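haha ok so turns out i had the wrong file open the whole time. this is the CORRECT one, sorry everyone. sequence first:
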Amino acid sequence: MAFFPKKVDFFAIFDRAADNLARTADALVEMFTNPEDFRKKVELIHEFEQEGDILTHEIMKELNKTFLTPLDREDIHALAARLDDVLDLIWASVDRMSVYQLDRPTPEALSIAEDLQTTARIIKKAIKELGTKTYSHVQDLCIEINRLENRIDRKYRDALGKLVNTPGNDPVMIIKWKDIYELMEDAADRAEDVANILEGIVLKHG
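then structure:
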């Protein structure tokens, strides 16, 4: 039996990673909507980020040990890395708020966070559908992720415009929020990368 090592369920690990991402985005919106106990909510999101690192490490470790994989090895690696990137960037935006001592979001930041929350939930669904080989549903969900990324990009541009063009805005606050907006927009970009990877997998296996 030593010649037949147990089969690794990569889809189960990806499901856990996607669920962790969705919980992180939920916590982000909750923190922005109800900023009481801001410090505790920052710590909670940090815990989710650390859990994401553990899951990514688990995928990479199993990938290095497994000879036969359900998807191409490079696709497993890329999907794990991009999911972790989305999570890291959400955490980075929260951490930056903490560093900058900002405990209240702008309306624009909340609006972007809500779209990131929707995006994370769709990613979770798409990965679940990938595991069950419901490829047509995966494609539809990827289209929605791309649409949301475009919407977040527009919101990001509008937020920057409002930030720099509103008379009387503190230059230091402009710098702080510009940094945070960029991190949130980068998270949306990496989510679009996840969609592109999923679409590539569907083309190979569908």
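The chain has one domain: 10-205.
again sry for the mixup
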